[in-house]
Write a structure and sequence with these properties.
The chain is α/β, with parallel strands linked by helices. The protein has 8 helices and 10 strands. Strands 1, 2, 3, 4, 5, 6, 7, 8, 9 and 10 form a 10-stranded mixed sheet that branches. It is globular.
Length: 262
Amino acid sequence: MQEEPVRRNHPKDRIGRVVVHYAMEEEAAGLARRLELGPPTPLHEGLPARLRSGRVGSIEVIQCTHGTDPSHGVDRIGLETACLTAWALMTSQEVDLYVNAGTCGGFGARGAGIGSGYLASRFLYHDHRVPLPGFREQGEARIEATRRPVLEELLGLEAGPVSSGSSLDATEHELEFFERERVVAKDMEATAIAAVAMDLRTPFMALKTVTDLVDHPEPSHQQFLRNLESSCGLLTDRVEALVRYVGRGVTLEHLGDHPTPG
């Protein structure tokens, strides 16, 4: 029997529980140390995803990572894992604000440098190519995100479209898509989580920090490996500032969210 999604508090209530969802352990480790979160526990029987939790001011913080793939011994990244992990978490407990935090590819042509940070203003898929009426649009998703100017200013972030796929590099078709849609961040989980959040009516935002420039001649994987540690440090700074600000007792309405009907 399918579980009913757990309903969140009324938007005018103060935020009581924040989830911060990372794909990779290295992205998450700094925040866990700074907030002194508890030891990792399983999210769901049979899934490698792990949770850590603690309190910051008035809120409970739950940090989620995808965990280690038991067959390959590496972080279980990608859209499929992101979607499954988000669904398991959102249906198992009440969540007032769900944050996907992670690293991403950026675009020098749109002003990005290594370490630049973005909040998503729209979510897209760039590698779901289905040239059939209606299915093309479904494949690209085009989920609008709530703008949060308070957080953009507080954290010094730009806002723009985030496009998700399950590959680290990009095809010529995808590069054309990024240019046409003015994408500012290319990642491997945000849109999948945004789709689950939309279905389950959970307030959602994505905060990304650049490790590599998609439009740079050097291969993305080489840039990623060289810059991962420094970009994770900046990501941790931004997410910590976000969590501590929310922990002061702000509301979703204050952050720019809008009431969900029903």
